[in-house]
UniProtKB/TrEMBL annotation:
InterPro entries assigned to the protein according to its UniProt record, in alphabetical order: Phenazine_PhzF-like
Protein's organism: Trinickia violacea
NCBIfam families reported in the protein's UniProt record: PhzF_family
A GO term from the CC aspect: cytoplasm
Gene3D superfamilies: 3.30.70.100, Diaminopimelate Epimerase, Chain A, domain 1
SUPFAM superfamilies named in the record: Diaminopimelate epimerase-like
UniProt lineage: Bacteria, Pseudomonadati, Pseudomonadota, Betaproteobacteria, Burkholderiales
Protein name in the entry: PhzF family phenazine biosynthesis protein
One MF term in the entry's GO annotations: isomerase activity
Family per similarity comment: Belongs to the PhzF family.
Source organism superkingdom: Bacteria
Length: 402
């Protein structure tokens, strides 16, 4: 455990100990309650020396600045920190129950002969949050694990962690490199993706959970992607992302794909859209036909770098299902990166108006209903923006201790 103490001298500041006590209250501390690795934070006062301070207990190293809430004391006092102390705790006393709990969060001790097969890279605990994306309801939507990393990890290690989590995607949040708020990398159990919808929406929810901020810009493999976020309830956030504008083309293996899906035809041309991942759209006549799709996954596995998206109209919304052995996904609960291209595809063929929100429901057949909302401004001659929105809810927090 690390103990951090920061002191501000109040001589020369308009604030006093009493005014700070009145203004820096419990609601200010609450902003810090979800900071990765922070066990406790307390405001402290030294009346004899006219100082105001903060004491923080960390389970590991202090997170990078981009994961920290605003420093209200710094803003109010208007002066830099006069003294900062840092201690490593060598021993401590705690109740048996608490000590046992904390031991479960610590990485396992190295084996006696670990030097014989030491890892290529140093290990340290990594905090993560699990978010169910495109839903308000825990255990619905599409889950994603969001890891908070102070220092970039080797790609091979991130890939192994993604395999360990065994979710459709895992995201690593790191300090920014190119003018964004954070740099992110997205991994499926088998490969890295430059962009993906539900993982990034879930990441925005996780960041809003630890940082009081209403707008984020992510550095992704497809460039800078902005997110507007609005907290609606504890752990529940509504997110709108500005997606990359996709390219599209006819899919040259349409007949083989239809055969792999067990379908005779598609109501619209079979076309491939790419905005990072590649999605190929097949349109069913109705929801009943969509629900009856039983793909041959071995045949689908022959198609590299693509997901098969099956669409169908349903009253005031559209339903979809996604199958992608290429991305190690048997069936996906919510494919956020496909939501914008779906709206473009339907608008291009006159089935929905340009510039009006489209409600897309996915995951019904696997009992993980997910609600996505897409809005495309422009026309086929020139698309101005692609926005995809939805809710996300925090369902778990954890620490990977290897």
């Amino acid at each position: 455990m690390i103990v951090d103490i920061a002191w501000w001298d109040l001589d020369g500041s308009k604030e006093t100990i009493e005014s700070l006590k009145a203004r820096v209250d419990d609601s200010t501390l609450a902003r810090w309650s979800n900071v990765p690795g922070l066990r406790e934070k307390h405001w402290i006062a030294d009346t004899d020396r006219n100082r105001w301070g903060a004491i923080m207990l960390w389970d590991g190293e202090r997170p990078a600045a981009h994961l920290m809430p605003p420093n209200d004391a710094q803003t109010l006092i208007g002066l830099p920190v006069a003294e900062r102390l840092r201690f490593s705790v060598a021993a401590s006393a705690a109740s048996g129950e608490i000590a046992a709990l904390m031991r479960t969060l610590e990485p396992a001790p190295p084996h006696a002969n670990a030097h014989a097969a030491s890892p290529a890279h140093a290990s340290y605990p990594i905090d993560y949050i699990v978010v169910d994306a495109f839903t308000r309801t825990p255990l619905e939507g599409n889950p994603v694990a969001v890891f908070f990393v102070d220092d970039p990890l080797p790609a091979e290690r991130m890939q192994r962690i993604a395999r360990e989590m065994n979710l459709s995607e895992v995201v690593f949040v790191m300090p920014p490199k190119e003018g964004g708020d954070v740099h992110v990398r997205i991994f499926t159990p088998v490969n890295e993706l430059p962009f993906a919808g539900h993982p990034l929406l879930g990441t925005a929810v996780a960041l809003r959970h630890v940082k009081d901020q209403d707008r984020f810009v992510f550095e992704t493999g497809m460039g800078l992607v902005p997110f507007d976020v609005r907290a609606e309830a504890p752990g529940v956030v509504y997110v709108t992302m500005q997606q990359p504008i996709p390219t599209w083309t006819r899919f040259e293996y349409a007949e083989r794909l239809l055969e792999a899906l067990g379908l005779d035809s598609s109501a619209l041309p079979v076309e491939a859209y790419r905005n990072g991942p590649r999605h190929v759209f097949v349109t069913c006549p109705d929801v009943s036909a969509l629900s009856d799709v039983r793909p041959d996954h071995r045949a689908l596995a022959e198609f590299e770098d693509m997901s098969a998206m099956c669409l169908a109209p349903a009253e005031d919304h559209w339903r979809c299902r996604m199958f992608s052995p290429a991305y190690s996904v048997t069936e996906d609960a919510a494919t956020g990166s496909a939501a914008g291209p779906i709206a473009i595809h339907l608008a291009r063929y006159g089935l929905i108006p340009w510039g009006e929100p489209l409600h897309i429901l996915q995951g019904v057949e696997i009992k993980r209903p997910s609600h996505m909302y897409a809005l495309v401004d422009g026309s086929e001659r020139g698309i101005e923006s692609v926005k995809v929105s939805g809710h996300g809810v925090v369902v778990a927090r954890g620490r990977l201790g290897v």
